[in-house]
Amino acid sequence: MQTEVHHTHTRYGSVAGPRRQPVKRRPQAGACAVAGAVSPSVHTTLTSYTHEADPSWAHSFRDQVAAELFPFWPTRANRIASCGRGAVLIECKACNAPHFVPLRCGGRTCPTCAPRGAAALADRTSARVSLHDLIMETTPWDGPGKPQRRSWRMLTLTTPALPTLEDRFSRAEQRRQVKRARAAWGPFWRSTVWGKQVRSPGDRSKRARRDTSFAMGGESSPRGMVHLHVAVYGEYIPQKQLQALWGEALGVQAPVVDVRSVKGAGGIAAALKEILKYVTKGEKGPRQASHAAAVEAAWKGVRRLEVGGALRRIRLPETQTDGGEDVQQEDLHSKAVASCEVCGTKGAWVWLAIVSASFVEENRGFGLAIDYRPPPEIRPNRIVQSRLPVARGVEFAYPYRAASKPHGELHDA
41 in a domain, yes or no? Predict the structure, then answer.
């Protein structure tokens, strides 16, 4: 059977593709500033104008958080307010067909971005840990004294909190507690036998142990208390000893320290997801907007995950740095690679520009640009003039190229 082909001529150029049946369009409402917004990935569940819009409560919550956050961090506030409303204009490398994909903020307290980012970050770290465990099976004992059995265990290291909830969630107090916990982590790790330096047999120089590791993330709990959640690979240390060392590093007496062993084949993967669930946990409810804004500001500039020891030396292509990980743009969408709605090419995209919510409204939703969607009465070789608005009032984060390009030309952003 021969496939019908239609040719469309617009300000983006001329494109040929198979005839498509019209799909129900879902308008996207809302307007917001997108200056400084983070670009999303093109890995979406459906790069289509049937793409499901975020629920109204999610937009309402993000708007409240943005309003609270704007006076002291306007860039992040704009990103949060833009999430799911603005779009990124991308173009298929094969046929130059333009598509719109949702803009995502990547906020720690965003009810949409937080769970998506946490799941993707846990998957990447689990792959890194799997390779680490294979290497550790053949790595000799590198600690003091007789060799001991090493395994993964979960630590929860707490900090003292103020009496009232509102005091705990004050912006200054949250930031102070985050800095305090982070500053205490290094001295605590180096004071344990896991992190103590050892001497090389040859030149007697000091170095870190090669048979212990950690993956650490932080949490501001719903009650306003700052904790560190750490997965540690090493030998057994009594809980009372860890509590004393953490109290010494923190400068308090008898802080709460919880230690749990990680068992089973999927134990460490579940533990990492537990850590990252706390790290990027989204908050819900109108009462929590001011708390979420305080959490966003308190963890400003802090990566969601820090790794050390032997795990630090294990790199995978998708990991960002030796010492830490954070949510990437690709994490904010599904893992399914988007395909062009005109020619069907998967994953071959050029990122052109960030556009405002008004563009999404006039496009009647995300996905293929409206002038590339054939109406029911279209026939092959029919010329359809562009119905997209001129880029008036649009804030572009990257140069926008509206000039026509020959069909099939490949180019870089």
Answer: yes
